[in-house]
């Protein structure tokens, strides 16, 4: 289903695409990534109610680079264990039509494999994104997580 509650059509059905999750967690095939963890953005004392995934390596790279925690960023190929929907933080208002192919689910994602052949953003681009996120935090902008 999409964010408007309409079923996804075959042309925009993410289940027919390779799906990724970027993080700093060290995971193995078969591990589950679920909601209920501290977020990477906004008020860090809360727990997330969704787990996020994408069909693009670029969006997964941002997840790997911006996630909290120690260690290197990692990108995993994942499969949802339940329904997924467009991520309203990156669709409709910011990027109509979901060109980032960003999704979320209330159900866990199963790790299929680690995707190791990826390149991070330049230090300048990464810093610019971190600065932008810091500005949003100062403005009190919170992710949509309801």
In short:
With 146 residues, the protein is an alpha+beta fold. It has helices at residues 57-66, 123-138; strands spanning 19-23, 32-33, 51-54, 74-80, 85-86, 102-105, 109-115.
Continuous helix count: 2
- Count of individual beta strands: 7
Biggest sheet character: 4 strands, antiparallel
Oligomeric state of the chains? single chain
Radius of gyration of CA atoms, rounded to a whole number: 15 Å
Give the structural class: alpha+beta
- State the strand order across the main sheet: 1-4-7-2
What is the share of helical residues?
10-25%
Question: What does this 3D model show about the protein?
Answer:
With 146 residues, this protein is α+β, with helices and mostly antiparallel strands. It has 2 helices and 7 strands; from the N terminus they run βββαββββα. The strands form 2 sheets. Strands 1-4-7-2 form a 4-stranded antiparallel β-sheet. The longest helix has 16 residues, at 123-138. It starts with 18 loop residues before the first strand and ends in an 8-residue tail after the last helix. The model is unreliable at 1-11 (pLDDT under 50).
């Amino acid at each position: 289903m999409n964010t408007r509650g309409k079923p996804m059509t075959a042309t925009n059905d993410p289940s027919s695409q390779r799906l990724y999750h970027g993080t700093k967690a060290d995971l193995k095939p078969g591990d589950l990534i679920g909601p209920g963890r501290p977020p990477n953005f906004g008020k860090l004392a809360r727990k997330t109610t969704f787990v996020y995934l994408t069909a693009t390596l670029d969006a997964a790279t941002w997840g790997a680079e911006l996630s909290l925690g120690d260690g290197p960023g990692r990108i995993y190929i994942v499969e949802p264990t339940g329904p997924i929907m467009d991520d309203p933080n990156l669709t409709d208002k910011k990027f109509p039509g979901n060109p980032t192919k960003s999704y979320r689910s209330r159900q866990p994602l199963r790790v299929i494999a680690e995707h190791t052949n990826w390149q991070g953003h330049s230090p300048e681009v990464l810093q610019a994104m971190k600065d932008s996120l810091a500005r949003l935090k100062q403005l009190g902008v919170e992710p949509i997580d309801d």
